[in-house]
Amino acid sequence: MSKALILEFSKKLISWHAVDGRHGLPWQGNRDPYAVWVSEIMLQQTQVATVLERYPRFMKRFPTVKKLAAADIDEVLAEWAGLGYYSRARNLHACAKQVMVDFSGQFPKDPVLLEQLKGIGRSTAGAIAAFAFHERAPILDANVKRILARIFAIEGTLQEKVFESRLWELAIELLPKKSEEMPIYTQALMDFGATWCSARKPVCLSGLQKCVFAKNCQANLSDQVLSFPKKVIKAKSPEFDCDMLLLRHGDSMLLQKRPSKAIWGGLWSLPESVWRAKSSGEHAKELKSAELFERILPEKAKALQKQCQKIQRGPQIKHVFTHRRLWMQIWEVHIKDPSNFANSDLRWISLQSLGAYGLPQPIKMLLQGLNLVRDDDLKN
Ligand code: SF4
After folding, report:
1. Mutate to test the pocket of ligand 1, among 150, 203, 221, 222 (most ligand atoms within 8 A of CB)
2. Could you report the per-residue pLDDT of 46-97, keeping only the tens digit for each?
């Protein structure tokens, strides 16, 4: 491994950033660890363009860690709705409380302590420490892993522990010596991975730009850029079916709060049956209402049967999660008397006030598609 490149790596990257990096993003240049932390969590699985729209809104609603910790989790989830990966919102809320209780409202600057907070991994801890406190702490997200694996020809797959450990060691070796350079260096690494050394179209292959590392990059020199890091062949994600109840009375519908550890945890959604491994053809036959109610809300099945005015088969919608696909068959049911259905997890909510509740994105789209709500009804 070239010692010279290790020594000049950060300098080269910082010079690259001055010309070709991203500048002026709303969370850049901010030394408030709260603001840095929120932006880092939001950026984890969300595109920059979406974060640009949603980050200022979140910060306006929860401007301090104290305000976020004091908020109700439903408020936080409602604000997060549409950004996906809701465990991030639940962890943000839990972490804010932890900072208030365990650190008197002040984020610690030591990355090891930051890493002990809910939802903060080693790389995010490094980013917060570097941006907010100028600590010489490395980051190693998927983009950085790719950059380092390519430039230094590190063999291995992302799943391998040895590969990851080698990259962490390298990430530490490459840090700039001056701590005041940490924010710009960290930003440069993020930008370089997101824009120039991208997974599928790195600039050295597109021929549009000459890469600043072209002469040092081992993957480029050996013409094997797309082979680093090694890909793991993924198994096909499993598919599931479930039934969902769109239970209506007048302009209200019954929503159920999802368990916090489940998918869409803590959000309000349509009551649903247990997921079944997808079998073709099961939905070709109509279900008897008693069987349907028993599948979805067994404890209310008798009442539903008694109150049911009209039952109608709705659309079947598909949602793709990271590791599974779900086919949701919607059943629209109108009932005569809504009393005796609500409890702590089941609530009648008027269509106009849905915006105050965090709803999963596919359910919002379903309600819009059925013309039950307008965009405005879903805004909080
Ligand atoms: S030469 Fe290509 S693979 Fe190597 S760092 Fe530059 S963009 Fe990435």
Report:
1. 150
2. 999 999 999 999 999 999 999 999 999 999 999 998 898 899 999 999 999 9
**Ligand 1 probe mutation, 217, 221, 228, most atoms within 8 A of CB:** 217
Q: What is the pLDDT of residue 336?
A: 93
Is-catalytic flag, 40?
yes
CB of residue 38 inside a 6 A radius of ligand 1: no
Q: Which residues pair with 42 in a beta bridge?
A: none
Q: Which CATH architecture does the domain made up of 239-378 adopt?
A: Alpha-Beta Complex (3.90)
Segments of the chain assigned E as strands = 239-249, 252-257, 268-269, 276-277, 308-320, 325-335, 346-350
Atom of ligand 1 nearest to the CA of 211: 6
Helices (H), 72-223: 73-80, 87-102, 111-114, 122-133, 142-151, 161-173, 182-191, 203-206, 218-221
How far does residue 141's CA lie from ligand 1's centre (Å)?
A: 17
| d(CA 210, ligand 1 centre) in Å | 9
Nearest CA to ligand 1 atom 7: 197
- Domain 3-227 = CATH 1.10.340.30: yes
* Cα(312) to centroid(ligand 1), Å: 56
Other CB atoms within 10 A of residue 199 CB:
13
* pLDDT (tens digit per residue) in 289-336: 889 999 999 999 999 999 999 899 999 999 998 889 999 999 999 999
**Residue ranges matching CATH 1.10.340.30 in the chain:** 3-227
